[in-house]
């Protein structure tokens, strides 16, 4: 039983990070009906920027803030690169454009920072708490990750449900024409959506970097996990993204613990396939994922 | 091209012939090209042809059928691994009465591709854009990981090495005749039957060679290895050779009774404890060349040692051609590409192509007209999987190797990049894309050499350029190079 | 207040509006009527900025607003209630209302909201519920309410009667007409249901195949039997 608890605890912080990334994907989807596969590339680049800042100044907090700011900026830039295809109603084109951005970002990171694995030191202790004479697989750093997830989710919930801007953003996502007729500057709301998504993704990237190593391709698998979580939850649902993000993290941790860590991608793939077979629109969503 | 279409409008049979002619002409040109250029260009040709084969499938799947899929790298892996596994393990298995050869391996690779294509297509064809892309992304990342899970069967992380089955080689005797060339549909020149390499060892090899008694005792006494030449247990340091704790005194808390300088005799290291020169094998310990005589009739010896890469001239339909391995790989790659291209051309320019596009553009209207949208989507998947698997088999031959690293996500992304840049809806675009994929990294390398770029820049520059170009193409010229040229032509002719 | 001069709109090869000119004066309802496909909705959408005209001008208080974006047109004071159910079911009733007029001051919006709830009490009762729980007539009220939240000087109503029971239609239209008289708002009403429309309107304009065939006092048009038979189907 202790094994189960261990794996469970170990999966919580991973799950929290996956949840954040899934959240970013859902944000973008809700505003523009595009799955931004480049999101992970954006997070990777902002993490590298954070690493550079941290190495230069020694401050993790400053690195995080810079990462968030650059996440905003990069999110907006990618929006402008992709949005034209969306306006042309060229769904394939939009998807292809996001992959193009992903490829370019990975290559850019390789050019600027090199391809080898880099270490990103955590700001606080990453070794497990010692309680009751035992080292648990939950460290102060893991606690920080979970806290940040809670803070971000709360902040976003408040913004979306209690503020005018949030209402405008939601309306722009649900029915841009009616929003326009009500005087909402829809393009600005879309840009804002992408900017916030970029920020959230950047936070996720900075949080995950200390848990392993940082390299241009280290987030590839992560992308699959985040996408899986977002899809299972229903791409429209922020709640679903968070819930299934954490869930996916737990499942991966359990699978890695009980069997072998190499099985994780295969399990994620299996989850994704099962979900897409039976409930492709996700558990919490209203909309259809199936074609005719 | 419109005159050509009007020609072919007359009868579907004539269209088939036209396409076959196109394929044959291209095959001929490329084969001629292959013969006259140096091995490096042959290698590029082989790689480009391999990419083109896979990309013909992408044109159908992503272009005509409108399904953005990243799974084709994984399908190439399936083809490559099936080819490698059958090549390695089934050399003695007869299939339908004929001995195993590379063609059979390709066939099985293709079958593997079709099966996987059905599996994936069955799920994927029901999904819309981003869900489909995400699923295939998962497949692209997950399938190579499966290879890691079975290190025994699939070679794990390091992959599997395989022998390239090619007819020319040092194992072949010059007298060993090749089967009379049979003309393959669309292949044009003779396509030689491959046979397992061991069968090509000359018969003389297996005969008891006459031993020449007049030769002196081949190995001299000094050349023989004796026990002394080998390291034995005594030569190694054991625990006893090291001073023990009891021997050593420490400065603090030492036993005042015993002599602080005393270290027991047994604990001292002597010369014997160390390895000396005698303990190592030297050149003298090995039999020398003069010592060995070959068991084989000297007349055959020469062929045996000959460099397998460059066999002597081989007569192929009376054409004197020296076969270098890269040329052979290119020939195979080009032949496969032309066959696949022929099939693709017929599909794309025929009824099926129109069906695929109709479903892409308006699935409801297509359904009303009696076409099954999901059926057509699955068929696109199956066809592209078949092509990808064959390309994967060719890839395995070019690399002489299959491994998870060769078929990673980057490969799928490259295929996507290729057709987007060349033109999603055009087979010519696929070919242009293949050329770009082969040419650009080399171009970047030469630029880097001139300007002294660092490695990390040169390695990543091609991908960076690809990414930017893809975004640019989607923004400004969604039809890629071919689409852009067509639009330009339309504008010019309108005036 | 709102003046249209020589407006022409084409969708590809099809000409939907041909040289249409009309005035929408304040304080009353102006009705545009005609058979299906006469170009009525196209007219509305052009005025609201959703469709760019190929020719002609739209003047609002003598300012040329032709081709402006819909969000800008709304912010200037022209609010369109489009055809069909233009409410957002994923939002609550109150959220749908608050969507309108975000650029206005807090007090202005508060006043408007109170007014909408008094005009349409049903909305007040269900303010916290999802908009998908409303009936057809209630949703039409919600759509009009949202437009009113923008504090418009010109209200464009596109076929409000579609799918609604005649009694409710009459109720809503009379309400709107009263509002126009009370507040000086200009109302342009587009309707297939000519009879009801002409009852609340001051002026009637008959549109056929994208062109105006007759315009004049609503009463006269309603009584012109020949006209009615030719263009209005009754």
Mind sketching the topology for me?
The complex is a heterotrimer of chains A (292), B (495) and C (234).
Chain A: H1 2-32, H2 39-57, H3 60-87, H4 91-113, E1 118-119, E2 130-131, E3 134-135, H5 140-162, H6 164-174, H7 176-181, H8 186-208, E4 213-214, H9 220-233, H10 238-258, H11 264-278
Helix pairs in contact in A: 1-5, 1-8, 1-9, 1-10, 2-3, 2-4, 2-8, 3-4, 3-8, 5-6, 6-8, 9-10, 9-11, 10-11
Chain B: H1 2-9, H2 12-36, H3 39-64, H4 72-89, H5 102-124, H6 129-149, H7 151-154, E1 160-161, E2 182-183, E3 190-191, H8 298-305, E4 314-316, E5 319-321, H9 325-348, H10 351-361, H11 363-368, H12 373-399, E6 401-402, H13 409-422, H14 427-451, H15 455-476, H16 480-494
Antiparallel strand pairs in B: 1-6, 2-3, 4-5
Chain C: E1 2-11, E2 14-24, E3 29-33, H1 40-48, E4 55-60, E5 63-64, H2 70-76, E6 78-81, H3 93-98, H4 106-119, H5 121-125, H6 136-149, E7 154-158, H7 166-183, E8 186-191, H8 194-200, E9 203-208, E10 211-217, H9 218-223, H10 225-232
Parallel strand pairs in C: 3-8, 3-9, 6-7, 7-8
Antiparallel strand pairs in C: 1-2, 1-4, 4-5, 9-10
Helix pairs in contact in C: 4-6
């Amino acid at each position: 039983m202790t094994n189960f608890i261990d794996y469970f605890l170990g999966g919580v912080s991973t799950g929290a990070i996956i949840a954040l990334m899934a959240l970013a994907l859902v944000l973008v989807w809700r505003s523009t009906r595009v799955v931004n596969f480049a999101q992970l590339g954006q997070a990777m680049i902002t993490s590298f920027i954070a690493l550079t800042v941290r190495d230069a100044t020694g401050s993790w907090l400053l690195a995080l803030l810079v990462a968030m700011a650059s996440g905003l900026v990069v999110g907006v830039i990618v929006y402008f690169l992709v949005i034209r295809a969306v306006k042309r109603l060229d769904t394939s084109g939009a998807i292809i454009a996001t992959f193009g951005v992903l490829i370019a970002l990975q290559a850019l990171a390789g050019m600027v920072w090199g391809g080898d694995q880099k270490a990103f030191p955590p700001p606080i202790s990453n070794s497990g708490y010692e309680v009751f004479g035992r080292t648990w697989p939950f460290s102060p750093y893991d606690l920080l990750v979970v806290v940040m997830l809670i803070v971000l989710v709360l902040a976003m919930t408040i913004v979306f449900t209690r503020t005018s801007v949030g209402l405008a953003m939601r309306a722009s996502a649900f029915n841009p024409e009616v929003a326009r007729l009500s005087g909402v500057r829809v393009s600005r709301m879309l840009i804002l959506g992408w900017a916030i998504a970029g920020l959230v993704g950047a936070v996720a990237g900075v949080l995950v970097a200390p848990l392993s190593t940082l390299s241009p391709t280290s987030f590839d698998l992560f992308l699959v996990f985040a996408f899986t979580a977002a899809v299972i939850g229903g791409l429209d649902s922020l709640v679903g993204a968070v819930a299934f993000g954490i869930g996916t993290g737990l499942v991966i941790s359990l699978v890695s613990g009980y069997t072998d860590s190499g099985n994780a991608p295969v399990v994620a793939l299996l989850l994704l396939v099962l979900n897409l077979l039976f409930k492709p629109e996700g558990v919490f969503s209203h909309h259809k994922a199936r074609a005719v | 091209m419109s005159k050509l279409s009007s020609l072919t409008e007359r009868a579907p049979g004539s269209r088939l012939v036209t396409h076959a002619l196109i394929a044959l002409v291209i095959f001929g040109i490329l084969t001629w090209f292959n013969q006259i250029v140096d091995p490096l260009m042959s290698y590029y040709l082989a790689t480009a042809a391999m990419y083109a084969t896979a990309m013909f499938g992408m044109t159908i799947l992503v272009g005509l059928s409108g399904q953005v899929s990243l799974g084709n790298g994984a399908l190439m892996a399936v083809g490559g691994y099936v080819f490698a596994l059958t090549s390695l393990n089934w050399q003695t298995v007869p299939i339908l009465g004929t001995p195993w050869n590379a063609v059979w391996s390709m066939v099985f690779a293709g079958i593997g591709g079709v099966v996987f294509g059905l599996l994936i297509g069955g799920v994927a064809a029901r999904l819309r854009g981003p869900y489909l892309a995400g699923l295939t992304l998962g497949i692209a990342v997950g399938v190579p990981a499966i290879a890691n899970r079975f290190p025994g069967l699939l070679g794990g992380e390091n992959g599997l090495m395989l022998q390239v089955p090619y007819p020319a080689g040092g194992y072949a005797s010059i007298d060993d005749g090749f089967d009379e060339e049979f003309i393959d549909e669309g292949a044009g020149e003779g396509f030689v039957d491959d046979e397992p390499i061991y069968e090509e060892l000359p018969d003389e090899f297996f005969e008891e060679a006459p031993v020449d008694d007049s030769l002196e005792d081949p190995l001299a006494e000094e050349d023989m290895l004796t026990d002394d030449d080998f390291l034995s247990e005594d030569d190694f340091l054991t625990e006893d050779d090291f001073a023990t704790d009891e021997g050593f005194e420490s400065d603090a808390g030492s036993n005042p009774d015993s002599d602080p300088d005393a270290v027991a005799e047994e604990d001292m290291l002597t010369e014997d404890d160390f390895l000396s020169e005698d303990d190592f094998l030297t050149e003298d310990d090995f039999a020398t060349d003069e010592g060995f005589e070959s068991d084989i009739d000297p007349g055959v010896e020469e062929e045996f040692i000959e460099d397998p890469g460059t066999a002597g001239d081989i007569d192929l339909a009376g054409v004197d051609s020296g076969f270098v391995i890269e040329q052979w790989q290119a020939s195979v790659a080009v032949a496969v590409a032309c066959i696949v291209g022929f099939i693709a051309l017929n599909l794309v320019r025929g009824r099926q192509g129109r069906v695929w596009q109709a479903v892409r553009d308006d699935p409801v209207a297509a359904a009303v007209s009696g076409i099954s949208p999901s059926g057509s989507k699955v068929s696109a998947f199956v066809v592209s999987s078949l092509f990808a698997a064959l390309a994967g088999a060719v890839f395995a031959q070019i690399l002489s190797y299959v491994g998870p690293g060769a078929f990673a996500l980057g490969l799928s992304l490259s295929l996507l990049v290729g057709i987007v840049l060349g033109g999603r809806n055009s087979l010519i675009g696929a070919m242009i894309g293949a050329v770009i994929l082969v040419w650009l990294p080399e171009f970047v390398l030469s630029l880097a050499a001139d300007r002294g770029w660092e490695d990390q820049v040169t390695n990543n520059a091609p991908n960076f350029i690809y990414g930017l170009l893809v975004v640019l193409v989607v923004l400004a010229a969604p039809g890629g190079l071919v689409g852009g040229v067509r639009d330009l032509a339309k504008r010019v002719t309108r005036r | 207040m709102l003046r249209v001069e020589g407006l022409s709109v084409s969708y590809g090869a099809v000409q939907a509006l041909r040289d249409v000119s009309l005035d929408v004066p304040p304080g009353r309802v102006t009705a545009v009527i005609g058979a299906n496909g006469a170009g009525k909705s196209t007219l509305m959408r052009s005025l609201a900025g959703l469709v760019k005209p190929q020719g002609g001008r739209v003047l609002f208080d003598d300012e040329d607003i032709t081709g402006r974006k819909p969000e800008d047109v709304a912010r200037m004071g022209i609010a369109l209630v489009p055809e069909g159910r233009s409410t957002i079911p994923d939002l609550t009733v109150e959220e749908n209302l608050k969507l309108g007029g975000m650029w206005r001051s807090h007090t202005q919006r508060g006043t408007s909201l109170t007014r909408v709830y008094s005009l349409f009490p049903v909305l007040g009762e269900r303010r916290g519920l999802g908009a998908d729980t409303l009936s057809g007539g209630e949703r039409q009220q919600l759509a009009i309410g949202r437009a009113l939240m923008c504090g418009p000087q010109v209200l464009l109503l596109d076929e409000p009667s579609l799918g609604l029971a005649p009694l409710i239609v009459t109720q809503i239209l009379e309400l709107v007409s009263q509002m126009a008289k009370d507040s000086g708002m200009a109302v342009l009403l587009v309707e297939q249901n000519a009879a009801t429309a002409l009852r609340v309107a001051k002026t009637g304009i008959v549109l056929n195949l994208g062109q105006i065939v007759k315009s004049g006092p609503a009463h006269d048009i309603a009584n012109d039997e020949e006209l009615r038979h030719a263009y209005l189907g009754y």
